[in-house]
Amino acid sequence: MWAPDKSAAPPPKMDSRYTSTAGIGDLNQLSAAIPATRVEVSVSCRNLLDRDTFSKSDPICVLYVQGVGNKEWREFGRTEVIDNTLNPDFVRKFILDYFFEERENLRFDLYDVDSKSPNLSKHDFLGQVFCTLGEIVGSQGSRLEKPIVGIPGRKCGTIILTAEELNCCRDAVLMQFCANKLDKKDFFGKSDPFLVFYRSNEDGSFTICHKTEVVKNTLNPVWQAFKISVRALCNGDYDRTIKVEVYDWDRDGSHDFIGEFTTSYRELSRGQSQFNVYEVVNPKKKGKKKKYTNSGTVTLLSFLVETEVSFLDYIKGGTQINFTVAIDFTASNGNPAQPTSLHYMNPYQLNAYGMALKAVGEIVQDYDSDKMFPALGFGAKLPPDGRISHEFALNGNPQNPYCDGIEGVMEAYYRSLKSVQLYGPTNFAPVINHVASSKKVRKKITVERVSTELS
């Protein structure tokens, strides 16, 4: 769901050519057979329309990609919402596969968010920009500026799109910072400080990559620890300059600049030490005041590197997926003799349950070494006495409900369908308990087997 704090966006519908959502997610190794590279697109805007009466707009950017065949525009992802600004630098990125030989049409729509609704028609349209991914990548410094259009007779501002090729670094870092004796910026209080992190680009510009939370009314804040991928922080270049700006938060969005400092991943990796105590410097104040030293200090409290483990890493490490089938045989599914039933016994094609079993089972069975799957049913009357059961073996053997592969599960399902009577109620607790207890048994058997081999 679209969070009311305007920091998150709903999951987008995906175009089949694109394998990542908006945001900083895991980077999968691309197959060498696919002539593509993965790029991260950052979005900033300047001089957006102001649609709010008593404050500034609360902009969000929505990316659409155009299908190759039907030319249909499909939503790819959304940035976060930034309150009270006409010049947003969005933290959330769009990660796309770039194909040199294809024209990849993109559309960026801007909205002023007025409510919690994820329905874009409920919000004020701020304009849009059309371009191609190749146009962004091929611009000087991979930085494209275009006017925002879409509202007749109005200047809608400018969008700034930057692209950077991503490497395959999968490490992430958990960091925590505190500050000491920051400048007082509020007239009736102290300051409400927060940090903004930027990574440097080859052309000398900077791309925003993280914002901390705001700590209210203090000159000595301790920010919460946060996790960020190394790719987002420096794209795997440990000596790349990282700029950190310190601001005093203001409700109207005109945050007061306190100062800044620079560092690098390599410096930060030293952890808590005298090397990671940074003077926060405001260049304007330094130029005006001869006795000016700094506007406070920021200290790194902790630095922990974590490797982002992929699904493939688990599989390579020997992880097995145990697949158990439980089928709903309650009467709410409809009479199997009727075409409207999910259990309809169609002589020419699979019914809804059969299609679901085949679709899931044929994928999962590749990750199970013995391909023997327990198959259960619930909510039916069983022959010969018509007793109601919420946990019965589809193969008729309660001591050994395992079926050989997904084809064995399908055969057992259709055989049961012909012999049981759909009934009810819907009670799947027994099959959940069955799966939980069978996992314990399998674990015990594995431990005993290992102990025997060791002895």
UniProtKB/TrEMBL annotation:
PROSITE patterns: C2. Keywords: Calcium, Metal-binding, Phosphoprotein, Repeat. One of its GO terms (biological process) is cellular response to calcium ion. InterPro entries: C2_dom, C2_domain_sf, C2B_Copine, Copine, Copine_C. This is Copine-8. Belongs to the copine family. The keyword Endoplasmic reticulum does not apply. Probable calcium-dependent phospholipid-binding protein that may play a role in calcium-mediated intracellular processes. Residues 16-146, 155-278 form the C2 domain. One of its GO terms (molecular function) is calcium-dependent phospholipid binding. The lineage of its organism: Eukaryota, Metazoa, Chordata, Craniata, Vertebrata. One of its GO terms (cellular component) is plasma membrane.
